[in-house]
């Protein structure tokens, strides 16, 4: 039988602390959330591997190190309202709930949404909810957000989602270039201006619907 508490501690010590994650609040959040509850029973034994973990066709829990580094860059604070885009079974939403005042997860797959809410409720996470919606439009109803995080790579961050940031808000995502190379990226809003800074390389699977459009070639 797997000792999940030991596996979780090993994940934090060997995958997160050793990869430039120094924010103690983020480390504590990863120590607190039982990742094994967000995957199927058959995959619980590998819930803490340092890879993206498929939870549905084309949908993944992001590699813990990549998620931790994105969260450290976005810097969610105790009073923040956070949007979690493409949260799948809700693991990232539960982690963000440890760091923010309120978290809204948006998920396009109704089955994943229902599963996420069941698990969050079972863990008594009372400051987060997952709603159904198209991932590329975010969730305007609760905007603006202090923090937005994408749970998968995108070819570009949609303007519709960027504009749901509050003034001074931070958005973290893995953005893939034309060659398909993913890079952890931080977008910050200042008034009506947005700046982007590349942080690290990440081989993260694309979120469905965020593939790069193929241009017409003669």
Characterize the structure shown.
The protein is an alpha/beta fold and 218 residues long. The longest helix has 13 residues. The chain is globular. The model has no long low-confidence stretch (mean pLDDT 95).
Order of helices and strands: HHEEHEHEHEEHEEE
What amount of the residues lies in strands? 25-35%
Question: N- to C-terminal separation?
Answer: 59 Å
Radius of gyration (Å): 16 Å
Summary of the model, kept short:
With 218 residues, the protein is α/β, with parallel strands linked by helices.
Give the SSE map.
Layout: H1 4-16, H2 24-32, E1 53-56, E2 59-61, H3 64-74, E3 81-85, H4 91-97, E4 102-107, H5 110-122, E5 128-132, E6 145-154, H6 159-162, E7 165-176, E8 182-190, E9 193-201
Parallel strand pairs: 3-4, 3-6, 4-5, 6-7
Antiparallel strand pairs: 1-2, 7-8, 8-9
List keywords for this structure.
two-stranded antiparallel ribbon, 218 residues, 26% helix, single chain, alpha/beta
